[in-house]
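Loading example: each entry is read as two labelled lines plus one structure line.
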Amino acid sequence: MTPPPIFADIVKAAERIADEAVRTPLLFSPFLSERLGGRIFVKPECLQRTGSFKFRGAMNAVQALGGASLKGVVAVSSGNHAQGVAEAARIAGVPSVIVMPADAPRPKVERTRRSGARVVLYDRQREDRDAVIAKVAAAEAGAVFIHPFDNPHVIAGQGTVGLEIAADCAALELHPDLVLVPCSGGGLGAGVTLALTERFPQAAIYLVEPEGFDDYRRSLAAGAPQKNAARAGSVCDALMSPTPGAIGWAINRERVAGAVAVSDAEALAAVGLAFDELRLVAEPGGAVGLAALMALRPDVAGRTAIVLLSGGNIDDAVLAAGLSAYRAEASASAASGRIAASG
Amino acid sequence: MTPPPIFADIVKAAERIADEAVRTPLLFSPFLSERLGGRIFVKPECLQRTGSFKFRGAMNAVQALGGASLKGVVAVSSGNHAQGVAEAARIAGVPSVIVMPADAPRPKVERTRRSGARVVLYDRQREDRDAVIAKVAAAEAGAVFIHPFDNPHVIAGQGTVGLEIAADCAALELHPDLVLVPCSGGGLGAGVTLALTERFPQAAIYLVEPEGFDDYRRSLAAGAPQKNAARAGSVCDALMSPTPGAIGWAINRERVAGAVAVSDAEALAAVGLAFDELRLVAEPGGAVGLAALMALRPDVAGRTAIVLLSGGNIDDAVLAAGLSAYRAEASASAASGRIAASG
């Protein structure tokens, strides 16, 4: 197995991507803090180049693997890694071919093309993804394949999110007690965990998945990687990978506090909350950490919690569903006579 | 006339509001930078508590005027100052009464109420606003009136936006060449200008107004305050004050580089761009600086420009119009064969 990255790899990744990636802030949320009784901060990776954290790992991998000297890059992704790799390749000046499911959100496909990638669509239910990838890889001889999460450079790149959180916590004299990280294959979780526990070993980091795609939750419980039964069917299109990546698993199993799952309805309500209360555009898969905070109500009284909003590439119809879900919930809550905090 | 605030008042305001306001970031925009050929940063005050910069001035004024010892506060506003004052009063634990036009965006009215304010609506066309205010003020004897811009504490509070921009520029070793600031009565512009020119006297600061409400542009040209003919009718509901405030005018006339105006269509397209490319929720009045950057195309090649996105309290229908406007423009641009930068 490829050895997992170490902390120094994340520091190096941060240097590699500094000129191209957006240094995202750690945003204090008065609204969430008052609602939940703790100090709640949001790390909005929806503000990252290409609209998700995926650009970090992709850019680091493209640079680490040769940058402009590469013959080309190939990737497979439902959309956020696709955009990240396509944009990283464009910046490096090398061609990219991206394999995407035909049911990927349209803006994700369009934006991948806008970065200059050749997009190959496949049917998630009827076609064998690996066969499609093999065919593309054969046609693109000499191009390197960049896995969305089971790649040490990708994990190190995603880890720069954690490095920034750690730096901002140190500057604000905060000790993060609870950190909620959206999880698909576990690459973001692994990178963030590696970076953050170096400085804040007491931080309890939870991976958050959609219900039905809770392979990490079941894997941690079983002590070994488990698979999801379904291949599709969640509104969290970014979080449907079938099983934990091996490299990230080696990091996460040792270091995360646990994994939890939220329903599609909870993820949608979190999308609406992000829009209405935080003025941030989040996609359902990017908002599952926020959904976990609101739906599972971990005890954060007097504590510092950080929610990672990992992406914001969303269809109009899904945003509309999210706004309806959140506003219905907010009205019901107001009607029940509970005191609503403002912000 | 009340003397205008000085730089030290802004530093003091920053201390007063530090525990309650959001310290917003200076966000690098790869998308805008590549499109326009400079280094473009966005200061997203839509991420501020209550969704606009107005909370800063309101909180500073409430604290400076007595805080918890106040009998109450009264304000008049189309919505953003309303929310700012209502929320500042709630935090200080004092009652607030806010006079708002009946055609104010519904979310602005609802959120003002959510902060616990009593809202008094009036008809912008048929009723005399000053008479309504006088009546409310008489009923609320002992409450202090907080003007939306012609108040030194309010201007000092808004100036904290500029203080943060200056600190971030210094940390990033940037010299801001061009700064675009949305403008209604001129309070934000005055505060930002005062704070920013202290450290960066060469920065060219432009106020940006909606067409038809370009009182500042005409006032600067005439050398004396001018009035707008219309009272209503712009999609930029936050930017329809009739004439420059006297205190801000004394600062701005000496220090800003100029004022420009954008059309409603340009402001709407900027709302769509903010959503699609920056994943930020901006309202039309908050996006006029961005609209000026995209529509007037100032020469920023090799230079550093900062766009202030001043607010994000928007109706769903207006957002939909903004998305349509921006996407139609982007498609036309792609169809014309111009190379589209990504990001």
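The longest helix of chain B spans residues 152-171.
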